[in-house]
Amino acid sequence: MYRSHNCGELRIGDIGRSVTLAGWVQKARKMGGISFIDIRDRYGITQLRVDESCPASVAEVSSSLGREYVIQATGVVEERQSKNEKLDTGDIEIRLTELKVLNASQTPPFTIEDVSDGGEELRAKYRYLDLRRNPLKKALMLRHRMAVEVRNYLDRQGFLEIETPFLIKSTPEGARDFVVPSRMNPGEFYALPQSPQTFKQLLMVAGYDRYFQIVRCFRDEDLRADRQPEFTQIDCEMSFVEQEDVLNLFEGMMRHLFKEVCGVDIAPKLPRMTWFEAMDRYGSDKPDIRFGMDISEVTSLVQGNGFSVFDSVPYVGAIAVPGAAEYTRKQLDELTEWVKRPQVGAKGLVYIKVNEDGIKSSIDKFYSPEQLQAVASKAGAKIGDLVLLLCGQKRKTQTQLGVLRIEMGNRLGLRDPKVFAPLWIVDFPLLEWDDETQRFYAMHHPFTAPKPEHLKLFYSDRKEDLEQVCANAYDFVLNGTELGGGSIRIHEADVQQRMFDVLGISREDAEYKFGFIINAFKFGAPPHGGLAFGFDRVCALFGGQETIRDFIAFPKNNVGRDVMLDAPSRIDDAQMDELFLKSTANE
Ligand code: ASP
């Protein structure tokens, strides 16, 4: 028997017991004739004591220990002289009768402490050491709890967890696929799934009317901050449901998770906001509704006064920043530079200060104080507020105002991480026109159904009509982050075919890539819909962190590399030959 207890469980009630622990040396220190060793495992830390009453062999082993040595320690639980309130085991220590080194350790390249002295790259290379640290341990424990509670909830709701394949057909419509060469089928490739979308729909055709899976997905995207090429989804699909059924069931799941994992109660019925309202009011399809500062359109109030910047654009919008009228010239200049950064992309910034003693603005020359007051009032400004205006194309400007709103929310400390404000965004446009490729793309994905009342528009050949078509699509948004999304699907072969036509996918190409699903829809496909949550991100948010990397045991870095494995890497010529591959890299 290696251990009788773990390193986190002994308490004052255990005094007098003879116990054996096994774990890692967190630290060892000598004070006079007494040595203390902190032994650590997944469960906690316990203090071991070596004094003159211990056998000589124990003292000898104890003086040979280094950090991270794996040891086995036997002794008697005693009350500590000086207690440590920070440790669960802080009331006791173990006076040793036996001490064994199970394995020595090199000195670790960084300290295994809550705040380590190791840089990110170094810790990534030795991820197994980093994972010994508390913050990462806590993150992985939370992730486990979440997975268990997801399964508990969905199981109780009659869902079946069904696995779908990882080696599938390449059908890129969105991100790039990761591909895998097939040795047994020379010159042919599998792709790793970007999501199990088509499989879960086929499971609906097969009659498994409530499916879920906690599943890995793969997308070969240029990595933006906090994206991983492989990530995990809670993927779900249901048959014989309408949008409201799906929303109710999954806000139930989120409520369950909030309650069980965070001990937080969220509203019994979450708000639903249309995509159009979210864009108009918050300049974002993932609005943070923990604070106000809504966007107001003020175009008609500011045009026709000879201010050509505003006269020459289709849209002028404003936000009122509470209590910021005291911003100095310098702060306003800095903010103007900030909105001009490529990440925001505005051309300039106009301000109106609503002071006790009147209005002050960067456009005083063109407008009377009454006119400026009218703009400020429309934006909802009160005395002491600062109104910020941007202009240009409508959606683009709203998006910029949305980014500015979040920035001001951060600066004013309005985004309290302890407040959770989830909501659903609904009624997305079905299609998005891309000027560059001169074609429509599916805003969600090509299996998303148009709203039944927009079906006629969907069959129109006019671009303007198609732009009007809304989808039965929805996103779950929390504090400015999209945590999940889905839709009611197309379940009729001819509507699906129409979708591929609208997307400019030729009949042959559609047949080649998606023939299997169009075919399946001809064999009694039930009405169905579902969604997927980004599991890593849900965990990170529940853990109160911005980055998902800590919630993944072995993540990739920001250029998609596994620093520990040093992957990706070259394969040898024999392996290449076997796969009928020839590399043109570095040629
Ligand atoms: N498969 C979709 C995605 O990965 C989610 C869904 O529509 O269910 O975004």
Brief overview, please?
The chain is an alpha+beta fold.
Structure characterization notes:
A hairpin with a 2-residue loop joins strand 14 (350-355) and strand 15. The protein is of the alpha+beta class and 587 residues long. Among the domains are: 12-103, Nucleic acid-binding proteins (OB fold (Dihydrolipoamide Acetyltransferase, E2P)), CATH 2.40.50.140; 291-411, Gyrase A, domain 2; 422-528, no CATH class. Helices cover 30% and strands 24% of the residues. The longest helix is centred in the first third of the chain and has 23 residues, at 134-156. The protein has 18 helices and 22 strands. The strands form five sheets. The protein has an eight-stranded mixed sheet with strand order 6-9-10-22-21-20-17-11, with helices on both faces. A five-stranded mixed β-barrel has the order 1-2-3-5-4. It has a five-stranded antiparallel sheet with strand order 12-13-16-14-15. The chain has helices at 56-63, 120-125, 127-130, 134-156, 197-205, 243-262, 275-282, 299-302, 308-311, 329-340, 369-378, 394-411, 455-458, 463-468, 493-502, 507-520, 535-542, 573-578, and strands at residues 18-31, 34-41, 44-50, 70-79, 92-103, 160-161, 179-181, 189-191, 210-218, 230-239, 272-274, 296-297, 315-321, 350-355, 358-361, 386-392, 422-426, 431-434, 439-442, 473-478, 481-488, 528-534. Aspartic acid (ASP) binds at residues 195, 197, 485-487, 530-532.
